Amino acid sequence: MTTNTGTLIGYKRVSTNAQDAQLQADALSDAGCTRVFEDKASGKNADRAGLVAALDYMREGDTLCVWKLDRLGRSTKDVLTIAEDLHARGISLRILTGTLAGSYSPKGEGKFFFTMMVAFAELERDMIVERTRAGLDAAKAQGRTGGRPTVMDADKLVAAKARRAKGESVTAIAKALGVSRATLYRTLSDSE
Where in this chain does the record put each Resolvase/invertase-type recombinase catalytic domain (predicted)? Predict the structure, then answer.
């Protein structure tokens, strides 16, 4: 275990803009991170400006802190490359939760255990993707599709067209049908 003699720097990542990184932010703050860098990109994405900025910002004696190992990267090779680079620069790596919670030691048993856990994390992600695809394919074969249910069914569309033909405003029609104006505009334009 490497002793932190410098600054504790946090890195948080979510895969999409729709996800919230607040849980990670709270954990990094509680851990004592003085600065936190963030990305909203897949871990497989090589272009992670927040991670690059964090790595550029850090100096010998600092510690890079991540909430969970998979936030650092999704591929075994990528995570190991980052960890080895940090060690070579005299920067520690601290993982707050998960199987590898603690600090990374790039020597002997620590390196072996870290490598195995990174590989297992990648395998777990691949299995989740595979199960999700299989589930979606099975649902599709049964005639079910995912996503939000449509709010504009055929009856509402006929009513909307009739009201629009009579000169009624889109706002009034949307309110009467219980849908948003944007939904009504989109549905009307798609049906023309």
Answer: 7-143
